[in-house]
Write a structure and sequence with these properties.
There is one protein chain. With 172 residues, the protein is an alpha+beta fold. The protein has one domain: Haem-degrading domain (Beta-Lactamase). It contains four helices and four strands; from the N terminus they run H-H-E-E-H-E-E-H. It has a four-stranded antiparallel beta sheet. The N and C termini lie far apart (73 Å).
Length: 172
Amino acid sequence: MKKILLVTAFLITSGIFLTIQAQPDRIPVKENKALRQFTKKGEKIFSRVARKGLIRMEQVALKNSVDGVAIVAFIPGELTESWVSAMKVVGKMCTDKSNLFAIASSKAAEMAANLTDSGSGIRKPLTGELGWKGGMIRKVKEGYIVAAFSGGPSEIDLQISKEGLDTLVKYY
């Protein structure tokens, strides 16, 4: 009986020790309150006007008889560490051969990584990026605004994205 208790105690103690060792080191980070308020302001603006950008993109797509997917996003600050986004399907999300949401997302992800328009050619596309034109990004005081569309030829996608981006940027 003593052996069972001793083995059980050893297993419990070992389990607790290993659990504690597996925890990542927690270094307290001092939050910059001024920066956070600045970020919150940009996110609040975005949440209030994102739909307007998407509606404008939809209008331009319909005017050009293009079905596809529109994405807008706000990246707070100077580096892409987070973002808030919104998406709208205009007509259809997929064709027989293409997932338009995936393509628009790839354009947006490329811009988030480069902080330049999609398909800019400033570097070779990374795995997951297509390197296709059709998305635009602009610096605003609080961070960056991204607009991407996929569904038509690159020139039309770019025109649609520009209209959505211009709609959003005027609120910053």
